[in-house]
Amino acid sequence: MRKSVLATSAMVVMLAVGCSTSRKDAPLKAFTEDQQKKVVDKSVSVQAEPLFWAALYEPTRDDLEGLRAAWNEHSRAFPESRAIQEIEKVLAAPGERPLLVALFTSDTDKADLSSKSLGWSVSPVPQQIKELDNADQPLRALFPVKNTWARYYLLKYTSPVWADAVALVLALPQGKVELTRVR
Q: pLDDT tens across 39-71, in order?
C-alpha cells in the first residue's frame, strides 16, 4: 500500500513538472512555429544527387522583440547571442538590410558561402557575408530550419539593392536555387 501511495505521489509530481515545463515552453514553441512560416527553402540536385539545400529569412526588429519576449517567458533571461547582436547592428544601421541564409551540402566544408574558391555566387551581391555560429540557440529559434546541420550566414545589403530584388540566388557551377522573398 505504501509503495502504491509513493508511486502515485511520484507520478503526480512528474505530471505536474511535465505540465509546467510544457506550459513554460509554449511561448517559445509558438514563436518558432510562427517563424517557420517566414522561411523559404529549396534544394538543388544534379542527376538525382543532392547538390545543396538553402533557406532564406529576412529578420525584422519586431521578430527580434518577439524572440526576446518569448524567450523571457520561456526562461528567466535572454542568453548572450553574438548572432543576434550582429543582426541587431545591421538592423540599427541606416540604409542597411540583413538577410539570413542557412546552407547545407553533404560535404560541410563545401557549404562555405563566403568562399569564392569553392565557386559560390550570390545575387544580388551583398556588401558582406558573415558566418554565424550554428549552435547559437536564439539564432535557431529566430531562424528555424529543418536541416540541423546547416551553416548560418548573415548577408548585409544596402536597402535599395535588396528593396529592388525579388529573390536571392545562390549558385555553384553545377546548379542554383532561387529563394523568393516572403512578403
A: 888 888 776 567 889 999 999 999 999 998 888
CB atoms within 10 A of CB 14: 10
Q: Read off φ and ψ for residue 165, nearest 5 degrees.
A: -80, 145
- CA distances in angstroms from 9 to 6, 22, 36, 37, 87, listed in the order given: 5, 20, 39, 42, 48
Nearest CA among 88, 70, 66 for reference residue 132: 88
Phi first, then psi: give them for residue 19, nearest 5 degrees. -65, -45
To which H or E segment does residue 180 belong? strand 175-180
The answer to pTM > 0.70 is: yes
Cell of 38: 517566414
What percent helix, strand, coil does the chain show, rounded to 5? 45, 30, 30
The amino acid sitting at 110 is K
87: exposed, middle or buried (Cβ count in 10 Å: 0-12, 13-18, 19+) = buried
